[in-house]
Design goal:
The protein is mainly beta and about 450 residues long. It has helices at about 1-5, 40-50, 60-65, 75-80, 85-90, 100-105, 110-115, 120, 140-150; strands at about 185-195, 200-210, 215-225, 230-240, 255, 275-280, 285-290, 295, 300-310, 315-330, 335-345, 355-360, 365-375, 380-390, 395-400, 410-415, 420-430, 450-455. Helix content is about 15%, strand content about 35%.
């Protein structure tokens, strides 16, 4: 996207990175009866009846506490377009299940309660209570995907909107412990740390690692593992016009802030020549490019690793990161992936006010967008992206409510944007401080970035 690249400095069906744990104890889902007339009927019969009804039945303490009965006679009316009794969820504007498709996924309390793979986000919300089903294994990945497809379709009562074959996936999420991932059979592993993060401090730095690759590489899968406390890890390359005098020494920590919190401006000079490659805010990310699509890494390359860790305790903590870049042969590549970095630097958020900021980025070539994910800081309450221009102008294509673990949206098929079309970003912030907030690197400052990937014809 030439216009977008030059303008910048630097599973929903896809938003959830499903965990694939040991499924040896998983049980086969109850086979839906042929007389079930809708996706909702299947959810009731195979998920709610077997996991939820024994607690959420009229007269039970669980039903009284939650205000939720899930027996077949009332479950749909109890769930759909109804505010939860949970005060924290109600304050956050959630419904038990919303009917606005994509926009309702992260605003549906039922999805929050059952979505074990996204539990790091869930437990950021004090007062939401325990994950469900209580005292049982999490729902299978197939059951979760089936419910997700139903919500994405607007949570109808009388239509078939999800494939029952999804229920054949009986794997269940198991929380991963931080550990070094195995070295790729084909590819490269990068390791950063361990490194100290001072008490009550945000440490962010750059660390240049040469790849020592004699030939160009084609990457079709990226795995990232981050120790607890990490805000993000981003890999940057350098543009061709970076001055030699600014190229950093390899394997040296170049901190953005010194121990007093003052900014090391010299360490930021080279960032104007950065080119985004990949990154995540998820503690564990496993991202596969679409079949035939790969990221080209030129020979004799290196990456500037940008790590940001937040320590809000009174003790020194440890940061550590691993990156696996899996490669394929060039003959397997049909499309070379290009990277989006839609970064709005020009905004001002008045103190003690809710402000919505918009910015549109356009393309001057036909592109196929297959990945999107947002990046903002702790005052962001909602981040949306809409198509701008053409017959689908105004259509919502991305939404995030979680600044710490924003969803990674995989678009399959890709979103095609024609020359002159683009994406309109709309981010809402609740500035509860007594100071005006602008673009900044600390989590208490703000950002408005949409990352992504695409290929051209």
């Amino acid at each position: 996207m030439k216009a977008i690249r030059t303008a910048l400095l630097a599973s929903l069906t896809c938003a959830i990175a499903w965990g694939c744990g040991d499924s040896s104890n998983a049980t086969e889902p109850e086979s839906p009866s042929s007389d079930l007339n809708s996706t909702w009927d299947v959810i009731q019969a195979t998920i709610l009846n077997t996991n939820c009804v024994e607690c959420h039945v009229a007269g039970s303490s669980f039903a009284r506490q939650s205000g939720l009965i899930l027996t077949p006679d009332v479950a749909y009316s109890q769930l759909v377009n109804r505010a939860p009794d949970n005060a924290a969820a109600r304050t956050d504007g959630l419904f038990l299940v919303g009917t606005e498709g994509l926009a309702s996924v992260d605003k549906s309390f039922l999805w929050e309660k059952i979505n074990a793979p996204n539990q790091l986000h869930y437990f950021d919300h004090a007062g939401y209570g325990a994950l469900m089903p209580l005292g049982k294994p999490p729902l299978t990945n197939g059951e979760l995907e089936y419910v997700l497809q139903w919500i994405l379709a607007g949570a109808p009562e009388t239509e078939h909107v999800a494939d029952q074959a999804l229920l054949n996936n009986t794997e269940r999420y198991e929380p991963p412990e931080f550990e070094a991932p195995p070295v790729p059979a084909l590819g490269i592993q990068l390791h950063l740390g361990p490194y100290d993060v001072a008490p009550n401090f945000e440490r962010e730095f750059y660390y240049y690692q040469p790849l020592d690759n004699d030939e160009e590489l084609f990457v079709n899968r990226v795995d990232i593992a981050m120790r607890s406390g990490s805000h993000h890890l981003i890999l940057y390359g350098f543009s061709d016009d970076v001055p030699a005098v600014l190229m950093p020494e390899p394997n040296v920590f170049r901190d953005i802030r010194d121990p007093s919190g003052s900014t090391n401006l010299l360490n930021l000079l080279v960032t104007q020549y950065h080119e985004f490659v990949t990154g995540t805010q998820w503690p564990l990310m496993n991202y596969h490019f679409p079949p035939g699509v790969a990221l080209r890494i030129p020979s004799n390359s290196g990456f500037d690793l940008n790590a940001h860790s937040i320590n809000r305790t009174g003790e020194v903590t440890q940061g550590e990161n691993y990156v696996n870049l899996h490669t394929i042969e060039s003959r397997e590549v049909e499309h070379v992936a290009e990277l989006l970095n839609m970064n709005n630097l020009d905004f001002s958020l008045p103190p003690n006010a809710v402000t919505t900021v918009t910015r549109t980025f356009r393309t001057d070539e036909r592109i196929h967008v297959f990945q999107l994910f947002s990046h903002a800081h702790e005052h962001m309450t909602e981040f949306k992206a809409f198509i701008d221009g053409g017959s689908r102008s105004g259509e919502l294509v991305y939404i995030a409510y979680d600044w710490q673990h924003p969803p990674i949206l995989e678009l399959d098929p890709p979103l095609i944007l024609e020359p002159g079309q683009g994406l309109r970003l709309e981010a809402t912030y609740n500035n509860t401080t007594n100071r005006t907030l602008r673009f900044g690197l600390l989590s208490v400052d703000e950002m408005m970035i949409l990352f992504g990937a695409y290929y051209v014809d």
